[in-house]
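seq as requested:
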Amino acid sequence: MVAVAREQGITIERVRQTKEKGLRRLRIGKAKRELLEKFDIVEAGAYRNSMNKFNEHGFTSTIECIALRRAELQAEYEKHKRQVEFMLEQRKRKCL
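struct tokens:
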């Protein structure tokens, strides 16, 4: 607080008061209401996004979409893994 007081050209007591006022505002004031409003906006956006995915792709939920995509990626990974293992096996045979 001393550095802030020195930098701003005010007393340490004034810095303390400003800090306390800011904390109070965060706890119960306008800032809290603003954060809650923004949270509601984000929550509504997530809901709209999920509904758009449902309407576009016919999934019952975003979770289902994620699970299906994960299964597709896992199958693709396994396919590539088998191909690499096959290629390595062929190289071993050539070297022997």
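The mean pLDDT is 76.
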